[in-house]
Design brief:
Layout lengths: L1 H14 L20 H10 L4 H15 L9 E4 L3 H15 L9 E5 L29 H8 L3 E6 L3 H4 L8 E2 L3 E2 L15 H8 L6 E5 L5 H6 L3 E4 L19 E6 L2 H11 L32 E3 L8 H4 L3 H16 L3 E3 L7 H6 L2 H20 L10 H10 L1 H4 L8 H7 L6 H25 L4 E5 L5 H7 L3 E8 L8 E3 L2 E2 L6 E7 L5 H15 L17 H5 L2
Parallel strand pairs: 2-3, 2-6, 9-10, 9-11
Antiparallel strand pairs: 1-3, 4-5, 6-8, 7-8, 7-12, 11-15, 12-15, 13-14
Helix pairs in contact: 1-4, 3-4, 13-16, 13-17, 14-16, 17-18
């Protein structure tokens, strides 16, 4: 009998406007900037429901994703989301919320698996995986669902997490060209392009991205949001379409450090399906406890200038270093001791090294073939990397349209011959360059608590090859007189108003400290609030609009 009552309640919620108590006078949160705390408060008080939230976010996506500015941040939405939201609303009434994410919609990158019967695909943006059936949810998705979150949809990305060839960031066969919301046709960076763009303008409260080298950090940097690239092994990669088990990691892209910390606290933890996670320290901290305005007091923060702040080598616009120097002054005001320079001994070797490419090429072929083998079904018939290359050539209208034909990385990876001596030598040298003679050497030599750099350039590389964390927060925006550059056949970078990020780097498992440092800087500067997206890219639908229907 209980299930009949529950079903009737769900049907009622889906078909009826919600009558909000006249005693509730708190204004509805503005979905462009709404925090997880504000949304959870409104849900708990009965001001609105999760069904209302899903309807509002769906409508906001509809406004700007394939219409208006055509941002193409979202590949598909979850056809089961409204039913799931109604069930979670009912559960809340009976038992209260499971967690800070109960009834909260979350967008996930399209390389993060969700069970097919829910109605969504998992394709890394490729038609070769359309309608394929994964065996189960990704490990991080399981954690989100257990916490009561609702998977809102799948975010667009650079196809195969930007491991296909010389293609513009944010483009995939299925999703088309994603663009940033702070300048028309802005390069969104990648590969977690859609996750970042969607979070930046409130198409979702928060999203998940993945990073192998730069794929959370760079999109956070160029979309005026927070990104946490965790230590490899803090969050599970089980059920994530891989590039390399040695560098892949999953993390949040959010509008605030607080929201990112909430999500990281839920998705972090061991997973028997990912052996790397079994090496993490226990217990997993509550990262929200690191959120203190005084986190930087008495801390020693190093500036690794050699190579990383050389515009000739990084290709950065000179303005990046101008605002970075201002950020260093802010860190001093917040009580930090700035150790400058605090160079990485391996900096110039990192710049010249090809070891990362060797490792990724080998890992990708082995692990992608294993992914194809793990599928319950794949209607395209693609069962290997070799098949994928042929599929792309066979269906050029889908996978090789004009200006998006490259698959040189796939071909390069297919030519590898497995785990040979060259591979293991490169893997060991990566760890030496990134960690032993890289980040750890600088931290130990100068007795540092963390390193800080502008996010653009080579900032992500040492952390990538070491498997170490990066936390990125908004730093500033390109000035109106910046020279507009071409980033791809249909995208530009830099351009006026496009955001720039500030990255804090540390050793393995130092996320708690980095979250605190980034939060103190964020609260002092409030950079995100200083500029909004361009007008056409801002959805107008708010909760009141869907609740009034």
């Amino acid at each position: 009998m209980g299930s009949i009552v529950r079903l009737a309640w769900i049907c009622f919620l889906l078909s009826q406007p919600i009558l909000v108590s006249a005693t509730i006078t708190t204004p509805l949160p503005d979905l462009y900037e709404a925090s997880l705390t504000e949304l959870q408060s409104g849900l708990t008080s009965g001001q609105f429901t999760s069904v209302d939230l899903i309807k509002a976010y769906f409508t906001r996506i509809e406004e700007v994703n394939l219409h208006g500015p055509e941002l193409r941040a979202v590949i598909e939405t979850n056809p089961s989301a409204l039913e799931e939201a109604a069930a979670l609303d009912y559960e809340r009434l009976l038992y209260g919320p499971r967690s800070a994410l109960h009834g909260i919609p979350i967008l996930v990158k399209d390389n993060i698996a969700t069970v097919a019967f829910e109605g969504m695909n998992t394709t890394a943006g490729s038609y070769s995986l359309l309608k394929s059936i994964v065996p189960e949810d990704a490990g991080v998705v399981k954690r989100l669902r257990k916490a009561g979150a609702i998977i809102l949809g799948k975010a667009n990305l650079s196809e195969w997490a930007h491991f296909r060839g010389n293609l513009a960031s944010g483009w995939s066969g299925r999703g088309g060209q994603c663009t940033g919301a702070y300048y028309p046709r802005a390069d969104p960076c990648g590969s977690s392009s859609g996750s970042a763009v969607a979070s930046s303008i409130g198409l979702t409260p928060v999203s998940l991205g993945t990073e192998t080298d730069g794929s959370i950090t760079c999109p956070a940097n160029q979309n005026n949001i927070v990104g946490i690239k965790p230590t490899v092994g803090l969050t599970s990669r089980a059920g994530v379409i891989p590039i390399s088990e040695h560098q892949d990691t999953v993390g949040p892209l959010a509008r605030s450090m607080s929201d990112a910390a909430i999500v990281l606290s839920i998705i972090a933890g061991p997973d028997p399906n990912d052996n790397f996670t079994l090496a993490q320290p226990t217990p997993i901290p509550d990262y929200t406890m690191a959120l203190s305005n005084s986190s930087l007091v008495g801390k020693r923060i190093g500036v690794p200038r050699a190579m990383f702040l050389n515009d000739t080598m990084t290709g950065n616009d000179p303005y990046v270093n101008v605002i970075f120097e201002q950020a260093l002054e802010t860190l001093k005001e917040l009580g930090a001791t700035i150790v400058d320079p605090a160079d990485l001994p391996s900096a110039y070797e990192i710049y010249n090294s090809n070891n990362e490419t060797v490792v990724l090429d080998v890992d990708f072929k082995v692990q992608l073939n294993a992914w194809f083998d793990s599928l319950v079904a794949n209607p395209s018939g693609v069962a290997s990397l070799a098949d994928l290359i042929m599929f792309n050539n066979k269906y050029p209208s889908l996978e090789e349209p004009t200006n998006y034909t490259g698959q040189s990385i796939l071909i390069e990876s297919e030519a590898t011959t497995g785990f040979n001596a060259s591979y293991y030598q490169s893997l060991a040298f990566d760890k030496e360059l990134g960690a032993t003679r890289g980040i750890d050497a600088a931290l130990e030599t100068y007795t540092l608590d963390a390193l800080v750099l502008p996010a653009p350039g080579y900032t992500t590389v040492p952390a990538a090859i070491a498997g170490y964390p990066i936390v990125t927060v908004p730093l500033g925006f390109y000035p109106n007189n910046v020279t507009i550059g071409s980033a791809g056949p249909n995208t530009v970078y830099p351009a006026p108003g496009i955001p720039i990020g500030l990255s804090f780097l540390g050793t393995a498992w130092s996320e708690y400290q980095l979250v605190g440092f980034a939060y103190a800087y964020e609260q002092k500067t409030q950079t995100r609030l200083q500029r909004k997206a361009y007008a056409a890219a801002i959805p107008t639908t708010q909760l009141a609009d869907v609740m009034a229907r």
